[in-house]
Amino acid sequence: MGSSLLLATLALAASVPLRGAEPASEAIVVYNSNVPESKEVADYYAHRRNIPTNQIFGFALNPSLNMSRAEYRDSLQKPLAAALEENKLWHMSSQIVRATNGKPMRVEWRVKESKIRYAVLCYGVPVRITEEPNLKEDGDDKRRPEMRRNGAAVDTELALLPCIEEKLPLAGPLPNPLFDSTNAAWFDPTNGLLMVTRLDGPSAEIARGLVDKAIQAETDGLWGRGYFDLRHTVDPGYKSGDDWIRGAAEICQRLGFETVVDDNPETFPAAFPMSQIAVYCGWYDGNASGPFTRAHVEFMPGAFAYHLHSYSAANLRSTTQNWVGPLLAKGATISMGCVDEPYLSCTPQVAVFVARFLYDRMSFGEAAYAAQPVLSWQITIVGDPLYRPFKKSLQQLHQELQQKHSKLIEWEYLRVVDANLARGVPRPAAVGYLEQLADTTNSPVLTEKLADLYASLGKPESAIETYDKALQLDPSPQQRVRLRLNLGDQLTEVNENEDKDKYKEAMANYNALLRENPDYPDKVGICHKLLELAQRLGDKEAAAGYQAEILQLTPPAPVPKQPPM
Fold this sequence. Notes:
four-stranded parallel β-sheet; about 15% strand
């Protein structure tokens, strides 16, 4: 029965069509010649991806995050279009467009042939085109006031470079004709779209690391857990954001990722044990918060991290402000964000992204642009557009991981279990699979899953024993925190006979948690658990000590302001 679970999952994965690796010749690289680090990132990326030297372009640009509309047009947009034509990377020609929808027949210049599909902007290239308040265009009076802005993110503005001769309006967003497309071949300049992303972040070193982690995940697979943070809102103006994130979570769960969904209005608290992150999606704090403020965040190589907020990428090169910069600084490989207020309906639909990236196995560039309902607006896209972690089948990855005796194979077996549970396989069958699997014995990941299943089946003694085993198998730091919390719960909540030995074991477990994590954000919460256990054991001295520690750790209540005399 155990092997049949594995075969069923591998067969399911094999049914998804695969494409070959993204040809490096389909990408161009753009850097800012006024920023030495920008060229270093460009050269590094071109070397790692074997991009031809005649597809690397440097332009003298403003070294700040922002550039004016005139600077964008004269220093980047027009010079790049000319360079692509001159280097025979694409060719524009006139073509007749038949009359449709009341528009007369007309002649338009479009990209007729293209050897490229992607453009990679490197650290140092400006991120935002600033608002030009004196710019007036025909049709402004027909746009909603909030959509009359002409500022935009450089990335999704430059994505319309193939339409440079069409004189598209600069104010407001423009519909993305390829939104939600499932055909990767359509994402092409001959269809009016250049997929523009950037290798960027708080430092050039972080920017270079994005391609390293992407290539590592392509080699060994994208593994880990999915974390999804909803707002639990019923406001019709915001509910769609929750729906997108919930949809992304459901896709991850069906594909076998160990998935956590937080349905509370607040974001994940700082003490939440967020371990081994492959996918994170949440909203709606202004700056990185909760677990992402910890000194170390456990992003897996290749991880996608996205926080929906109007200004999530307003300062892409900060490690503390907004979200995209801090997420990249903490180890995420790919992300998206807003440089200015986009309004919810014009933000990336993350469920579409996850479906295209994880299920349809598109490249990051393809999946990111499939998820954009509009272009020429406020979204920046950060990461290697060629990155495609599932270019190998699960069968091939399984064989390679086995040959290398890679510890990562534990994640493949976890996906087997979770994918089958999502398909309705009974939990006892999953328990049987893990119990007979030799790798479970040495895997903290699989042993923790087995303990979770025991707990869910009402087998506390087996759960306690197995959580304890997982703690002996070198789990990651945040996984160790989660194991101790779950073990403590099992030892106390199911102790119907008031077994004092279990209470003592629970106390030792919680004290170990505090000892192993001196910076644990919720020491007060753990001390409350210890106080309750000491009271159950009748240990007055220990109880007094924990009570004193709680008082010491609890900040004093604010003194109410006196009304003016």
